[in-house]
Amino acid sequence: MLNKKVLLLAKLGVIGSLFFSPVYAAEENDGVSRLELGKAITFDRVRGNCLACHFVEGAELTGNYGPPLIAMKIRYPDREVLRAQIWDAAVRNPDTRMPPFGRNRILTEEEIDLVTDYIQSL
């Protein structure tokens, strides 16, 4: 069961994504872990929208276009390589369909760090 604060963050992301980043920064200091925050962004259908393409265990309505997000610490032992992939996957694969979350400012630097930490924990 997700923490109530994480659910609130997810709802806020859907309702008002322009104000989402400051909420994350404030909530992190209120006892919500970085992994919970990263999971909220990853599962958010407006911000991260990772589930549109990727399977994540425990998530509903996951995609199967992108590789499943499992055994990520083994697949990406270097956190910075995983972060770079999330930042702009086209650097490694020009034919990718993965959005450049950092280059196109879809997510902030902090949000990319949070998503990276969560995904690497899978």
Report on the architecture of this protein.
- The protein is mainly alpha-helical and 122 residues long.
- The protein has one domain (4-121): Cytochrome Bc1 Complex, Chain D, domain 2, CATH 1.10.760.10.
- Helix content is 47%, strand content 0%.
- The chain has six helices and no strands.
- The longest helix has 13 residues, at 109-121.
- The two termini are 17 Å apart.
- Residues 1-27 have low confidence and may be disordered.
Overall 3D form? globular
| Proportion of strand residues | under 5%
Helix-and-strand structural type:
mainly alpha
In the residues, how many domains can be counted?
A: 1
Largest sheet: none
- How far the N terminus sits from the C terminus, by CA atoms, comes to 17 Å
Quickly give the CATH architecture.
Orthogonal Bundle
List how many beta strands DSSP finds.
Answer: 0
The CATH C-level class name:
Mainly Alpha
Q: Over all CA atoms, what is the radius of gyration?
A: 14 Å
Q: Give the helix proportion (percent range).
A: 40-55%
Q: Helical element count?
A: 6
CATH superfamily placement:
Cytochrome c-like domain
* Unreliable sequence segments: 1-27
| Pattern of helices and strands | HHHHHH
**CATH topology descriptor:** Cytochrome Bc1 Complex, Chain D, domain 2
Mean pLDDT: 82
Oligomer: single chain
Strand and helix layout:
Layout: H1 4-15, H2 20-28, H3 34-43, H4 72-75, H5 79-87, H6 109-121
Helix pairs in contact: 1-2, 1-3, 3-6, 5-6
Condensed summary:
Helix content is 47%, strand content 0%.
Throw out a few tags for this protein:
disordered N terminus, Cytochrome Bc1 Complex, Chain D, domain 2
